[in-house]
Amino acid sequence: MKCKADGIGAIELPLQTAAKVDPDDLALDYLRDGTRPNDRRKEIYDAREECYKVVTQALGELDNKLSEATASGDGKLVLCLV
């Protein structure tokens, strides 16, 4: 069996990207202050949201793989997240 690092990388990379896109947490301020369409922080918020969508997709895929592995019923479960 081969363990691939792409599971964790698919989560870490977009999270790191989100932090680099918005190091001052302007997206959070945008939400706290009320979302207004003409606010310059909306673009930063949208970029961060895209990163988080990638994370949730990757987590969904990992969840599906885990479900498939446990559904096999052979009593053996190996999960590699490197």
Total domain count = 1
Q: How many beta-strand elements?
A: 0
Query: Which percent band covers the strand fraction?
Result: under 5%
Low-confidence stretches: 1-5
- Separation, N- and C-terminal Cα atoms: 14 Å
Q: Residue-averaged pLDDT, rounded?
A: 84
- The helix fraction, in percent, is 55-70%
Shape: elongated
* Major beta-sheet overview: none
Give me the number of helical elements.
3
Structural class: mainly alpha
Order of helices and strands: HHH
Q: How big is the Rg? A: 17 Å
Please give the structural blueprint.
Blueprint: H1 6-21, H2 26-32, H3 41-71
What would you say this structure looks like, in words?
The longest helix has 31 residues, at 41-71. The chain has one domain. Helix content is 66%, strand content 0%. It has helices spanning 6-21, 26-32, 41-71. The two termini are 14 Å apart. Residues 1-5 have low confidence and may be disordered. With 82 residues, the chain is mainly alpha-helical.
How would you summarize what this structure contains?
This protein is an all-alpha fold. The protein has 3 helices and no strands.
Relevant terms:
82 residues, mainly alpha, 3 helices, disordered N terminus
